[in-house]
Design goal:
408 residues, alpha+beta, SH3 type barrels, Fumarylacetoacetate hydrolase, domain 2, 2 domains, 8-stranded mixed sheet, 6-stranded mixed sheet, binds manganese (II) ion
Amino acid sequence: MTRLNSWIASANTAETPFPLNNLPYGVFSIAGGPRKLGVAIGDQIVDVAQMEDALPVDPAVLSDPRGWNGLMERGAEIWVAFRSALTEALFEGAVERPDALVPLAEAKMHMPFAVSEYTDFYAGRHHATNVGTMFRGPDNALPPNWLHIPIGYNGRASSVVVSGTDIRRPWGQLKGPNDEAPKWAPSQRFDIELEIGAIVGQSSDGPISVDQADANIFGYVLLNDWSARDIQAWEYQPLGPFQAKATATSISPWIVTKAALEPFRCATPVREKDLLPHLRDTGPMLYDIPLSVTLNGETICETNYNEMYYSSAQQLAHHTTSGCPMRVGDLLGAGTISGPKKANRGSLLELSWGGKEPLELANGDTRSFIEDGDTLTLHGAAQGDGYKIGFGDCTGTVLPALDTPFKG
Ligand code: MN
């Protein structure tokens, strides 16, 4: 696949994250105006309601107050028809529609879809091995279930926010030293998790196959699962993370469709133990998407989505095995995406090895965990032949904890 060119010249470069091959879906507003559905192309956004005549969906989809949920609900055939009509309308040589464009730089971005429910997994082997080694030692790093099922927990849809939203450092109950009483204090070990989130675009009721799960996924976002490690360490046994993960989860403003990522499919790693038949790979299930994290602009991690052990389709299939109904707009975080080297670690917990090996920054500062005022940004773009498929940054600045967290 090579770059497809558009009549919008800024889309026809090797550097833009938003060439015609991408067409990611977002929700924007201009100067405090109403929220609108838009598609990023080069340095512009297509206001899709202004191109209603060229798009094969009812107008309600193009002004859905929830965002892109309406298009998802219409089903996979409409996803294909919509994308191909957009591609045709924006292709070089098509009738130019500058009236439908707004500059990306003037837009404020909002949540691209209404999150129905949110689940987060723990499906990166390097991350699970690193964290398990720190907490339980190298011999017990991976729990016995890990190579057989994608481990996950049910998160909170209410906590998901769009990139650019400030994140308030949480208070929580923290383990006391030795066996002393726990204390109530702002988290001192506040962290990021570099992840990709899959968006479920079709509902299901009962167990579905891996292939059906893949077909039901609409697209992907970058996802930062903000994590308070000290709250987590005290609360996580025996039912897993709870308040440590409930402060906020940030997502990138643009949904990159599964269709746009199709040329970047790649295989999951060789299995140390065969998966049971209902979870087995049915083809290349992952995507080659280089990812990175910056702290106040300095790169602290570089990794790739192809490091995952379980694909989002396998996670979704597993999620339904009990009969759990899935809804349009469900969001599935993949789990922290670390790689084999130190520079590939997707959380500060791993990068600083639990605070024992603080990161040294270019300005001479060190970091074990996030400090007040730090801006953490996730970046991701698949690299094609002369084009990129980018997500737009997923960023957030951490504000100091309140003097007291209680309101009234
Ligand atoms: Mn996570």
